[in-house]
Amino acid sequence: MLSIFAPSMTLATALLLSFPVLAADENERPYGARAYEGRIIDAESHPRTQNREELASHYADAAKAGVERIIVMRTPNDYRKPKREKMLVRNARFANVTILCSADFVGYIHDGQIERARREVARIGQDLDAGRCAGVGEVGLRHYDKRWSRGGGQHEVFVPLDHPLVHQVLAAANLYAVPVVLHIEPVYKPRSIDNLAEVKRWYKEVCVKYPRLWLVAAHTGMMSPADLEELLLSCPNMLADFKVLHSEGATKGFADLHGINDLDFRFFKPWAAIFEKYPDRFIFGSDWKEGRKRGYRGRSYRKHIDRVRKMIGSLSPPVQEKLAYSNAKRIFRLP
Ligand SMILES: [Zn+2]
Q1: Residues within 5 Å of ion ligand 1, judged at the Cβ atom
Q2: CA 247: distance to chain centroid?
């Protein structure tokens, strides 16, 4: 009796465990008949390694995965890491990389180093003028500790949205008609912070005041599709990038920030729907941190891109290449 019972339990358990991985639940867009097979631009990447060979192998991998170009930019916290000071020049050496001007001025404002912030802002103007960068980012005006539930550890950056230096940078981007990638977390539930209304108002004002620049809200604005839609409707010069959350830590950190997927790796339906409703307004930006130890050990960018291709393949075919490739190519004026 026992010998018959035990194997059938094992089978049942195995089915239960594998079922959620195999099928999309009702909140998720099921995969399409085939994965997206076209070209990709990864419009937001933050390599952590500084090692030339490791970077070379990462970019070779990207090329093999069909990622034609990667846009490298600094994160809101990089200004505190002297080790990462040269990351933009090191990455710019690779033929399939485009870099954005550093937005470290935001961190210096946060730390009260206004003179240093001013020098950085002056340099952005010069670099844009010389064509040394294709835009500015990540401008991290609101960045909270998303590791709080696991003991904390992320440095926080909080800067007034209308700081004069922020406007100076927006004006420079407007002059050269380039994108500004903005990382602005509107809410932070652990401390009951809710600035969503203020943040939305700010986007709406800024897009009118600087009509020639492209506003790119990072990680799909970190607001609901409905709130983002309101902004897209009032700001013709606004787009949003989307990343696929790939680790448990990342999905937890994004719990209040409207991530587009869980670890089933399918789009949540409301996100798939808004991508298809506004196919010219979204770009793929992996937010990949090649070489980072936490959350990246044993993870392969190529495998990640395979997953992203399956997900993009779930969208209506005419939309797929726009999100994966041509929208980014157009706004960053890529070769
Ligand atoms: Zn970001």
Answers
A1: 183, 218
A2: 15
d(CA 124, CA 102): 7
Q: Which residue has the tokens 């550890």?
A: 153
Angle at which helices 114-129 and 164-176 cross, to 10°: 0
48, 289 Cβ separation under 8 angstroms: yes
Measured in Å, residue 2 CA sits from the centre of ligand 1 at: 54
Q: How far is the CA of 137 from the centre of ligand 1 (A)?
A: 9
Distance 234 CA to ligand 1 centre (A): 23
* pLDDT (tens digit per residue) in 213-260: 999 999 999 999 999 999 999 999 999 999 999 988 888 888 889 999
Report the 10 Å Cβ neighbour count for 105: 29
What domains sit in the chain, N to C, each tagged with a CATH number?
Answer: 29-331 (3.20.20.140)
For the stretch 72-107, pLDDT in tens is 999 999 999 988 999 999 999 999 999 999 999 999
Alpha carbon of 76 to ligand 1 centroid (Å) = 7
Least confident window among 195-199, 200-204, 297-301: 297-301
Q: 219 CA to middle of ligand 1, Å? A: 6
- Contact at 8 Å (CB) between 169 and 103? yes
Is 179 in contact with 196 (CB distance < 8 Å)?
no
